[in-house]
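> call design_seq(struct)
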């Protein structure tokens, strides 16, 4: 029931060895903190989205555009997620046509699944099609923010992003008001 009593240098329980360190301490396996893992890039925990589903107002401009014209945001996401094989304008037009029929959420959930598999993201808060069916605008905003957090400039498309990466140009970090010198 109780852990065994350790005997130290003078043989009495509770006394300290000459080194000042207790002897016979049971070894416990080292489990690194997820935020300190070498697999984490720029503070991201593997498998987790960089922002929550309902954090649409973290990027007010994107939230506004997605609310009034989701085909623009979807086109940008689809171009990056498809690695340029589905151009922004083409994907946005297909989405707009499907939006009229009410089946746009089925089309967009396919790209959410593709994005999740590319970046090993968890399927949360529920399955992809249900997220897009219930919270289409929030899901598109979350996907947009995720790609932006991963260094993509969403306004320039796949080809220009790849050109920048080959030249070693990255997107400047966003500086908040609390980071003044």
């Amino acid at each position: 029931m109780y852990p065994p009593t350790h005997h130290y240098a003078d043989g009495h329980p509770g006394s300290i060895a000459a080194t000042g360190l207790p002897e016979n301490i049971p070894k416990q396996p080292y489990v690194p903190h997820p935020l300190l893992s070498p697999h984490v890039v720029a503070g991201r925990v593997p498998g987790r989205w960089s922002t929550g589903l309902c954090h649409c107002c973290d990027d007010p401009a994107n939230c506004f555009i997605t609310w009034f014209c989701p085909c623009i945001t979807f086109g940008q996401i689809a171009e990056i997620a498809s690695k340029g094989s589905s151009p922004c304008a083409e994907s946005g037009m297909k989405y707009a046509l499907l939006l009229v029929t009410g089946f746009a959420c089925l089309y967009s959930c396919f790209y959410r699944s593709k994005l999740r598999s590319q970046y090993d993201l968890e399927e949360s808060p529920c399955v992809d099609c249900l997220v897009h069916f219930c919270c289409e605008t929030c899901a598109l905003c979350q996907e947009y923010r995720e790609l932006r957090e991963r260094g993509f400039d969403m306004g320039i498309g796949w080809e220009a992003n790849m050109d920048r990466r080959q030249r070693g140009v990255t997107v400047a970090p966003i500086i908040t008001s609390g980071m003044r010198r």
